[in-house]
Amino acid sequence: MNLKSIKALFLFILFVINFSFAQVSIKPGEISYIEVQYNNTLVAGETYNITLKFTDAFGNPSNNFGLASKIKAVSNGLEISKSEIYPGDIKNGETIITVKGKKAGFYSLTFFLDEKPLILKVLPLEALTSSMNFRVINNKAEIAVIESKDSYLPGYPYEIRISFFDREGNPVLEKSHINQTFLINANGSTKEVNVNDFNGNVYKFDILPFTVEDFNIVVQDKSNKNILASKTIKPEIQTIGKIEVIAPSETEAGKPFTLEIKVYDTQGRLIKVYDKIGKDIKLKVNGSGRIIPDIIPKEAFVEGVAQIQAIYTKSETINIEPVILGLNTSIDVEKKTQKEEKKIVEQPKKEQELPTEKKSEQIPEKKEKKTTAIKLKFPLELGIISKVNLISSKESNFIYKIYFSKRNLEYEVRNYEKDIFIGKENIGKLNFVEDKDHNIVLNISLKDDYTAEASLLKDSKNTIEVKVVEK
């Protein structure tokens, strides 16, 4: 082989070697997909970071926008940190955006490249979709609205109604992600209520205020002591319109009888706080005798009713007229007679007697039975009484059990004891205690010649009436 041939072969080998080691730079193709993994439930007011990974059709990380200059992010209600994404925002095929929802509801987020929506590959299932879908739910309660009336009627149930909202104004309906407790102070007492203790975003309960002054309702977050709402409630001061006097149809001179006085307002409602807003009442009679006592102090009224034991000194028919001391205007007086507990059997009129007939004999009068009634009113905050059952009746000892349909265990029942009088005679006593099941056991012990019956009054909520009657 001559020198010329050797030189040509060397050049050929050198060319082949250079060709074998040639480098080609392969750039990613135009963006075709966005890979994303995210939680589709957002809590209102909270911000969430979402990582977007852009790839071409073969899964290569890409920031190749083709002929477009930017990617547009479009939502129908979410706040987005980047509504436009440029190639320089994408590092190693990834960028991060922040989303936030304010109002509860359903929303979507779509990305457009050259006016065409990019396909989203949602991990881990790699489901393909054209938009990210979100549900925004309420946050914890930071606002409360007290919807109760601006005034209350003393002695009557007053409903407190409170609605709870998050800081964005959404009603607090979703609660599975919230553990929040509120302190509700009303008329000097405090209730502790968890957000999961009631359905919806509205909590309602009744109180029974016997005050005649303004009181505040304050709603507070127990954990951070923030006050969510407060409201001042004013009393409705009733104007006296009528006095009702209930007396027996007949009695004996010097013998005690029960006199019941009730005071109503101009709308016919019982004034249950007469002891706080009323005045003493004087009893006037049109007879020649004296009624003792003749002054009923306002403090004698319990929930608008005064029951006193009175006597009259003369045997005659009288009218008893109550007069409010210090009141210049006239008040209607309604007089009622108690249902008679005995009947007077009159002797039949004599017809012309025949010699063979015997004279009619007068049927002796039945002895009037002594009686009294005691009312036990339990506060609505304690719970709602559903029924009263007689558990035991032995001789003159009676045991009743008072059941509640809904019992508030935050309120303690203290042991109670009271002597029972008819006139000045002490005929026994009653007491009640709370049992292990949080029901109330009522025990009535009487003298042997008396009997008792306890029942739930239908027209007066949570009031038990104990009637004691002579056998």
Could you explain how this protein is built, in words?
By secondary structure, this protein is mainly beta. The chain has four domains: 33-137, Immunoglobulins (Immunoglobulin-like, Sandwich); 143-235, Macroglobulin (MG2) domain (Immunoglobulin-like, Sandwich), CATH 2.60.40.1930; 240-324, Immunoglobulin-like; 371-470, no CATH class. Helices cover 5% and strands 46% of the residues. It contains two helices and 36 strands. The protein has a six-stranded mixed β-sheet with strand order 5-7-3-1-10-11, with no helix packed on it. Strand 8 (105-113) and strand 9 form a beta hairpin. The longest helix has 18 residues, at 3-20. The chain is elongated. The chain starts with a helix and ends with a strand.
Counting helices, strands and paired strands, the structural category is mainly beta
Query: Strand fraction band?
Result: over 45%
Total individual domains? 4
Rg calc? 44 Å
Q: Helix count?
A: 2
| Measured distance between first and last alpha carbons | 152 Å
Contiguous runs where pLDDT drops below 50 for at least 5 residues:
339-365
Write out the CATH superfamily name of the largest domain: Immunoglobulins
In spatial order, strands of the major sheet run 5-7-3-1-10-11
Helical content (DSSP H or I, runs of 4+)? under 10%
Shape category? elongated
User: For the residues shown, what is the average pLDDT?
Assistant: 86
InterPro entries: Ig-like_fold (IPR013783)
Region (Disordered): 339-366
